Amino acid sequence: MAKAELKTKQTELSVSDFLARIPNEGMRADCLTVLELMKKLTKCEPKMWGPSIVGFGTLHLKYASGRELDWFPMGFSPRAANLTLYLHGGFEQHQDLLAKLGKFKAGKGCLYVKKLADIDMKVLQQLLSY
C-alpha cells in the first residue's frame, strides 16, 4: 500500500498576498503582528505551507514508523473561528506560562486565539521562544 502523501508542504505562494486577502481587518492586523514576532524569534523568512499556513524554518522529521516529512518549527494560520499558532514540540510542557497567557484554547501542538488582545503578548513571546 502506498504511503499517503502529506498535503501540507512548503509552496512558492506569496505570504504577503495571502495575508492581504484576509477579509477581517482585525485578524489581518493580528496576523501581521504574529508574522513580525515569529520572524524575529526564528530569524527565518516566512513561507506558505499549503494554501493557508505561514511557517518559519524547516525541520526534517523522521518517525519510528519510518515516515519522514518536512515541517516548520513555528507558524500560524488565520482560521474562520480563530488564529491558530503552531509550535513544533507543543505547548503542554509550559503549563506555568499557559496559566498566565490569557484567553485561548490549546491542542497538542497549537494554540487557538480569538484575537491577540485576549492574550499577554510578552507571555506568548516567552512560549514561542522555547
CATH architecture classification name? Alpha-Beta Complex
Largest sheet strand order: 1-2-5-6-8-7
State the secondary-structure class: alpha+beta
Q: Tell me the CATH topology.
A: Aspartate Aminotransferase, domain 1
Query: Whole-number radius of gyration?
Result: 15 Å
Note the beta-strand portion.
Answer: 15-25%
H and E order:
HHEEEEEEHEEH
Mean of all residue-level pLDDT scores: 91
The N- to C-terminal Cα distance equals: 38 Å
Tertiary shape: globular
**Which CATH top level class fits?**
Alpha Beta
The unreliable regions are none
Report helical residue fraction. 25-40%
Strand tally is 8
Tally of helical segments: 4
Keywords:
130 residues, alpha+beta, Aspartate Aminotransferase, domain 1, 6-stranded antiparallel sheet, 30% helix, globular
What does this structure look like?
There is one protein chain. The chain is α+β, with helices and mostly antiparallel strands and 130 residues long. The chain has a single domain, classed as Alpha-Beta Complex (Aspartate Aminotransferase, domain 1), CATH 3.90.1150.200. 30% of the residues lie in helices and 25% in strands. It has 4 helices and 8 strands. Strands 1-2-5-6-8-7 form a 6-stranded antiparallel sheet, covered by helices on one side. The protein has a two-stranded antiparallel ribbon with strand order 3-4. Strand 3 and strand 4 form a beta hairpin. Helix 3 packs antiparallel against helix 4. The chain starts with 14 loop residues before the first helix and ends with a helix.
